[in-house]
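Protein modeling request. Please complete all fields; requests missing the sequence field cannot be processed.
Requester role: graduate student
Desired output: 3D structure, token encoding
Chains: 1
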Amino acid sequence: MAKRPNPRAIKATRTYTVEEAAIALGVSIGTIRAWVKSGLPLMKSRRPFLILGDALRDFLGNRAKVATVPLQPDQLYCPTCKAGRRPMGLLVDCIPQTPKTARLFGLCEVCGGPCNRMISQTKIDHFSQIFEVAIKEGRQA
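Delivered output (141 residues):
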């Protein structure tokens, strides 16, 4: 199953039953039902209840917007705190991920847990002015 459902797997002009939506997105039927309870609109005029593809795409898009955490230039994302945090002493490791991206890794100054931020390799110089960056060897995808 997918970690995050891809809204592009849904056709906006089509209607889906709960089961069809679950199959199209690679999630369980229970997940779709939980989304309905949290605000996903259903067409309830007759059975089986239907979900408009456009409404499902909008619902998933809104969930994704709410889940993103805006970061200040001097912050990394701490999954333990679920917030942007400054790394201890502004010390970070820069680990190349792909030819175009790198990951900044540091320790949260609040909880001491790992913090991350994905950046473009072209912006390493910019972040070197903010953080004390140590370039590490990474795995190229």
